[in-house]
Amino acid sequence: MSNCLIAQSGGPTSVINASLSGVIDSAIESPNIHTVYGAINGIQGVLNHNIINLTSIFAPSKSKLEVLKTTPSMFLGSCRYKLPDFTEDETEYKLIFDIFERKKIEYFFYIGGNDSMDTVLKLSKYAKIKNKNVKIIGIPKTIDNDLFGTDHTPGFGSAAKFVATTMLEISYDTYIYDIPSVTIVEIMGRNAGWLTASAALARNEYNSSPDLIYLPEVPFSIYDFLSNLKRIQKTKKNIIVAVSEGIKDKDGNYISASENALDDSFGHAKLSGTGKTLEHIVSKSLGCKVRSIELNVLQRSAMHSASLQDINEACEVGNKAVEYAVDGYTGQMVSIIRTSHNPYKYQIDCVDIEKVANKEKLIPTEWIHAENGDITNELIEYISPLTFGQPNIQYKNGLPVYLDIRHLISNN
């Protein structure tokens, strides 16, 4: 019998461990898989031989898998590592597939976002060219919801729920003061504004905030931004704005890109404070109280505000990944297909990794009212069902019980 290896990569989410639990559970139960291994810190863990036996951890006590489902972030740790083009240098590929051979790995599962799917694509191509009998499957995750080939990504629903909840609570905090103010909430989203758009879910019969929403999909104009603020100030004392960290001007320049910051290994510009940049502009122009709030990493792993729908779907894509791999699929990413909008229904499928890797799924511009800083009801209705339900989280001494991660802490 063969073995399988799982790794996680990229930024964390509240439900990436639910996908991991789905893979582990199905792999342990599969008659085709003997041992389930996990690589610590993504593909770098494979290259560094940093591999643990997940069967020995989870097979004796399936209750641990239930705790894993509601443990935020990444039990196996992460990395942001770009494999070289193997046509130019195959050294690392030889090392990786040598590990696969020595560990008798026939199935490799990589859980991650856009950059992780680049790794899946490269490994799949190399395996095909070199006739390596390793099935390689990508499992989607990202709070940014910008992966092609899937209706939405596991992790997005929970992050959207956190953003909307936080926006509602910020509104409560803001409205208590009888002082003209502008509060700018900066939300993650480099080129895709899905997560920032989810702030609109905070609106209800008494709360109209966020009053303005700015997304990276359309050019940002300082002039229009200030004009909209002045327009709203005529009828509302306290204004709240939701803005993506990646908004750009008409020339494609990030509003907050630092002139001295270097790009990361995947060529992404390092951004530095969109909210703070706009705070200074508004303060000088309007002369009222202005505050910027950066949600930063808080929106990525907020299990206390997770969506049960998101957790269940994340677990399902993990289950399905094993099924596809054992059936002989390779070079694929598991995907979620929405079959009904109202009521919300979906099915799990897979898509060729060539159609996913190194692409970004942006919000359709027809769902954005750029001129008045808002979004359409279609976009709100798309996001809403992904945030439903509350997970059953264990608590001890008033705090949530998460799985032990000493195997990660010892590496630091």
Automatic annotation (TrEMBL):
Protein name, per record: Pyrophosphate--fructose 6-phosphate 1-phosphotransferase
Active site: D144 (proton acceptor)
Chain ranges of the Phosphofructokinase domain: 4-324
Cellular component, GO, one term: cytoplasm
Stored InterPro entries: ATP_PFK, PFKA, Phosphofructokinase_dom, PKF_sf, PPi-PFK
Secretion signal span: none
GO biological process, one term: fructose 6-phosphate metabolic process
Activity regulation, per record: Non-allosteric.
Residues with site note (Important for catalytic activity): K141
Keyword Metal-binding: yes
HAMAP family: Phosphofructokinase_II_B2 (MF_01978)
Domain of life: Bacteria
Subcellular location, record wording: Cytoplasm
Molecular function GO labels: 6-phosphofructokinase activity; diphosphate-fructose-6-phosphate 1-phosphotransferase activity; metal ion binding
Site (Important for catalytic activity and substrate specificity): D115
Annotated source species: Vallitalea guaymasensis
Keywords recorded for this protein, A-Z: Cytoplasm, Glycolysis, Kinase, Magnesium, Metal-binding, Transferase
